[in-house]
Amino acid sequence: MKFNFKTILLSAFLFLSFLMRAQNSFDSEFILGGGMHTRGFLLSTQYSIIKDETKNITFGIDFTEIKSPKEKRITAERQAIGGTSNRSYIYGKQNNFYALRLGAGQRFYISEKTNKSIVALAFAYNGGFSLGMIKPYYLDLIYRFDPDGYRVVPEKYSIDNERKFLEPLDINGSSESSRGWDELTIAPGIFAKGSLFFDWGANDGFVKILELGMTADLYFRQIQIAIGELRPPVFVNLYMNFYFGKRW
């Protein structure tokens, strides 16, 4: 039986190509990430079903804090009782506002996903339900008594303590961050976001992604973050997120 060298070489090449393709064929992706947006921090996780070389179906969870643009952090050390407190606080803040987003969407690769590509570029959109959480913001307020007595009381903002809550000389710093979690109020809403993904080694098992995008949150009730700030319950932010994860 005679063997044709060219036929053997071609067969070996086709076999190796098949192995490489099988090695780089993935069905799923899971990533964890964190970053910043224009009003706070952002933590994200996403699971993707890889449909083909150009499209992923995505399911994601975000946790974020949204701050007021009026927030100003002040160091309380100068007016602290006995100089014992150096806790900073945010002047004029009434509530912390957090959001938990649950959404789904798609990611479309607009550049080729090959091993030779250093970075693959993708466009993504995502939308769904947003659970807003409003937590009262507490300050340690100083109550003075004649002749030299005083006590420090953690309080949230109210109409009754408005003057003291906004007087820096009566503030001993922010209260413990654990305060207020048992007083959460819920604000249901929806969100939508669009972004660009910069995927280093889009055919690798180890995922390394930079995401740049814009998100919009709409809530069905008024969100009060800063004292006296009344605005529509719509928040639009630019954000940047770094992801690491795995494909299999």
Q: Would you count the extended β strands for me?
A: 13
> What is the gyration radius calculated from CA atoms?
26 Å
Distance between the termini: 43 Å
Please outline the major beta sheet.
8 strands, antiparallel, barrel
Q: What is the N-to-C order of secondary-structure elements (H for helix, E for strand)?
A: HEEEEEEEEEHEEEE
The CATH topology comes to Porin
Label this structure with key terms:
single chain, 248 residues, mainly beta, elongated
List the helices and strands and how they pair.
Blueprint: H1 5-23, E1 28-37, E2 40-50, E3 55-65, E4 72-75, E5 88-91, E6 95-109, E7 119-136, E8 138-145, E9 149-156, H2 162-165, E10 171-174, E11 185-200, E12 206-219, E13 234-247
Antiparallel strand pairs: 1-2, 1-13, 2-3, 3-6, 4-5, 6-7, 7-11, 8-9, 8-10, 11-12, 12-13
Task: Provide a brief overview of the structure.
With about 250 residues, the chain is mainly β. It is built from 2 helices and 13 strands; from the N terminus they run αβββββββββαββββ.
